[in-house]
């Protein structure tokens, strides 16, 4: 279940309570009159089944509470109450299949921000990928996959396309279009530094055996990207974040970018081109799958 807390102007409190009474899946309604200071008003807290939360939030927004008050959502752990069990039974559908669109928009907006932290993780992931290529170490490449933060902007692009949010699309595109080239330039400088120091003596990427899968583009490259994108989006909408680790390990966005840089430094321009193609295939596949998953959820929700 989720807890929805509402700060409502005094004149809207009864409308909020009436909404709670007539929405299936609602339990444990608490009112604190005059408790809110900024913005001023009453505080209403209500527990609601996840499958009813999106409808509830939509109706609260229709009352104008985002302008004159506030709406916050918080996931609850274990809820022991007959009223809570009854609310779960009354709610239509399954909580694992419910999409909270406002929560999803907020999460993807935050994770697609071109922040210092995002750039740091992206650069670290690219450097790990480059080291994995330079040392022909598949384990290091897998580590780079896990560290890479690029799924956030890709998920945000999918959400923006389905919900038609131009601002979110621009934010996600900026994170990708600025972050990727910047991280690749830094990786190139570091790679040249490693070679100048004599730490590596790589003269060609054509003889690598453990990591050559990175630049080998084939039909399964797109299939894997689609499956990974679908799994990633399902993990976001169902709040099952553990599945994201498998998503990160299954796609080769970070390794492809790192491989392209290393190949370019040794003059293997065809390999670098194949790596960039692999990168694009993965990016497009992940976003496309995310759009399909969200569109299916939206159709089911509106049906």
From TrEMBL:
Please indicate if the UniProt record lists Chloroplast as a keyword: no
Its lineage opens with: Bacteria, Bacillati, Actinomycetota, Actinomycetes, Mycobacteriales
Could you tell me what this protein is called?
Putative hydrophobic protein (TIGR00271 family)
**Pfam families hit by this protein:** DUF389 (PF04087)
* UniProtKB keywords: Membrane, Transmembrane, Transmembrane helix
Identify the domain of life: Bacteria
Q: Which organism is it from?
A: Mycolicibacterium fluoranthenivorans
Q: Which residues cross the membrane?
A: 114-135, 141-162, 174-201, 213-237, 244-265, 271-296
> Does the keyword section mention Zinc?
no
* InterPro entries, per database record: DUF389
């Amino acid at each position: 279940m989720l807890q929805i807390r509402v700060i409502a102007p005094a004149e809207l409190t009864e409308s909020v309570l009436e909404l709670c009474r007539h929405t299936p899946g609602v339990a444990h309604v608490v009112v604190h009159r005059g408790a809110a200071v900024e913005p001023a008003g009453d505080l209403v807290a209500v527990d609601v089944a996840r499958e009813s939360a999106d409808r509830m939030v939509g109706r609260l927004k229709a009352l104008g509470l985002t302008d004159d008050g506030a709406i916050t959502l918080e996931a609850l752990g274990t809820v022991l109450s007959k009223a809570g069990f009854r609310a779960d039974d009354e709610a239509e559908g399954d909580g694992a299949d419910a999409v909270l669109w406002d929560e999803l928009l907020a999460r993807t907006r935050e994770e697609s921000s071109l922040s210092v932290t995002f750039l740091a993780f992206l650069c670290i992931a690219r450097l790990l990928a480059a080291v994995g290529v330079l040392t022909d170490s598949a384990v290091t490449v897998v580590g780079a996959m896990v560290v890479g933060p690029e799924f956030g902007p890709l998920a945000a692009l999918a959400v923006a396309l389905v919900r038609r949010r131009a601002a979110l699309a621009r934010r996600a595109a900026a994170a990708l279009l600025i972050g990727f080239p910047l991280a690749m330039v830094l990786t190139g400088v570091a790679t040249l530094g490693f070679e100048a120091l004599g730490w590596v003596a790589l003269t060609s990427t054509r003889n690598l055996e453990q990591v050559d899968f990175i630049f080998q583009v084939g039909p399964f490259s797109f299939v894997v990207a689609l499956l990974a994108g679908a799994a990633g989006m399902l993990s976001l909408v169902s709040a099952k974040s553990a599945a994201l680790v498998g998503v990160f390990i299954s796609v080769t966005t970070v390794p492809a970018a790192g491989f392209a840089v290393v190949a370019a430094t040794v003059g293997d321009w065809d390999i670098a081109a194949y790596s960039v193609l692999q990168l694009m295939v993965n990016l497009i596949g992940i976003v496309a799958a995310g759009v399909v998953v969200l569109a299916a959820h939206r159709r089911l929700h509106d049906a």
